[in-house]
Specification:
Blueprint: E1 4-5, E2 15-17, H1 41-44, H2 50-57, E3 62-64, H3 67-73, E4 81-83, H4 85-91, E5 96-101, H5 112-124, E6 129-134, H6 138-150, E7 153-159, H7 160-165, H8 167-175, E8 179-183, H9 189-197, H10 205-219, E9 222-223, H11 230-235, H12 238-250, E10 256-260, H13 265-281, E11 286-292, H14 297-300, E12 302-306, E13 317-321, H15 343-350, E14 354-359, H16 361-375, H17 381-400, E15 405-410, H18 418-425
Helix pairs in contact: 3-5, 4-16, 5-6, 6-8, 12-13, 16-17
Bound molecules: pyridoxal-5'-phosphate (PLP).
Pyridoxal-5'-phosphate is lined by residues 109, 111, 138-139, 227, 260-266, 335-336, 380, 382-383, 411-412.
Length: 433
Amino acid sequence: MQRMFNLNQQELPTRWYNVQADLDRPLDPPLDPRTREPLSPEALTALFAKTCVEQEVSTDRFIDIPLAVQETYRLWRPTPLYRATHLERALDTPAHIYYKYEGASPTGSHKTNTAVPQAYYNKVEGTKRLTTETGAGQWGSALAFACQALGIDLTVFMVKISYQQKPYRKAMIELYGGKILASPSERTNTGREILKENPDSPGSLGMAISEAIEEAMTTGAKYSLGSVLNHVLLHQTVIGQESLSQMEIAGEYPDVVVGCVGGGSNFGGLMLPILYDAKNRGRKVKFVATEPTACPTITKGEVRYDFGDEAEMTPLLRMHTLGHKFVPPPIHAGGLRYHGMAPIITRLVEDGVIEPRAYDQVDVFSDAVIFARTEGIIPAPETAHAVHAAMELARECARKDEKQVILIGFSGHGHFDMSAYSAYLAGQLVRTS
Ligand SMILES: *Cc1c(COP(=O)(O)O)cnc(C)c1O
């Protein structure tokens, strides 16, 4: 049986799909953090590349991918689509399970899909240096790769606890020429304030975002965000477009699309083009978004305007939120430990298009181990949430003797997360629910 469905280099998508063209009503605008009035796009360009801000509010259905970005994408794209035949056999299920493998990128996750265009637009617009934050280090290493490829400087504020626990992600950022600081740091006012209160603060994504924004604002650098925003989800739509072509080669169409959501970018990138395509074909597809019970943003959070960061510097976004002061327990899926959600994903959850589900990390790792032992590929702890949900669906198919085609957004590999797998195998992973 065929296990791998590949596109050739010429079949790389040449444009991104913008769901804002197809929403019933426009998204609510971001608000100014001080006045709470709608923020003009011009105000956002103080922080972000102008082209990214234009894409943030664009209602064009398709946006061309610059040729230089396409060429960089071709280093790892189109990524493979796999049929999980060995997993299907292990589960003894009539379901057909496919996974779109974003672990094939140079840094091992989907994040390079937006890091490259963001660095490119900044380069073209004359930016000399970018600042950003990183939690587990996936975003920091992706942006460091992109900045290295395009020749701009990068300063990364890495959540202190991850900085200490993930020395190889830190080394990777430095290898690509990025400058890295443990957050909270002595470098910014925000960092110094936090350290004065609590010298032993382990840091959080919200704190690191505040520091990266302050650093950009006070030094004339620009800031770059790896998830949540509309333009980030836009850049990720290469995933869903490729998947549709690959499923066609496989001669199937997904009944269910499953992904994990931290800020919503990899899942958005996979499901938005499929949502559009399914509508055009008059097909019904179920979209399942998974998250940890330890950080239950879309299953338990409320929908309202909230800040993206701890120090209340970012624009306010209308989204699912657990509150910007929420500090999630230190689960291993660092990329899913965020209090907020992409406004696009929030809208689709509210409209009943996306079905949210939350899982405990012990159940998630248990299935991730089965996946690794059958398919061979080790899922990142974030990705493992999607894998677990898909396996639960496949087991349900087995019970009902029903064939469904399940497509997993496989956001990244877990090669830098082996300490989490060691903890699981040693029986040391704790339930948080
Ligand atoms: C960052 C990350 C996530 C979560 O971010 P999204 O924006 O929701 O995609 C998921 N999986 C991996 C491998 C990541 O690096």
